[in-house]
What does this fold into?
Amino acid sequence: MEYDPGKTALFINVINPDEKLLDFLFQEASRVRSKRIYLTTSSGPNLPAYFASSRFFLARTALQRYGCPVYIIDVDGTFESPPTSTSPFPDHDVLVRDLKVGMPWGLLNASRVVVAPTQNGMLFLDVVTRYIATVFDPNKDQWFIDQNALEYGRLELLNKAPSNSFADLHLYPHLKNIVLTRIGSAKQTIVDEIKY
It folds into this structure.
């Protein structure tokens, strides 16, 4: 955020924090708010599928409330360049890494998704969150639900919007390279305890 001239905000949502972490977040929230870093909490099932999917609900709220592009990343993403690198923003509503092969959960990479503040961008997030809310089952291992939701959103968007509304994020290195993410077996395992 130190590279940002006040145009970018960072939202961090912590799911199911314990009391000690909640106290820490409360103290930190007031300290970092002036830097446009917002810490929020939510509760839900203690399942990886829920952790991976809940970010799209927060993104939808942010897009609706702030009307600016939303860069949605996995929890293990690492910032590599300033968020202001989004300029110029391409003439698309949604940018996602399109792998172009595989089953629905393997066609799109959910680790980085960029959504423009457009009617089609909002439509995409509406479809993605509606899919997740409808399909999510806490009694099943649905590690693929976020990728399936993105593919469902893409198909719905391309059915209702111009074909250029959706594009491969890798065609825009200035956007792709803001955050380094890992996919599948290459994901970084977070083993250290959070010190607070």
In short: Residues 185-196 have pLDDT under 50 and may be disordered. The radius of gyration is 17 Å.
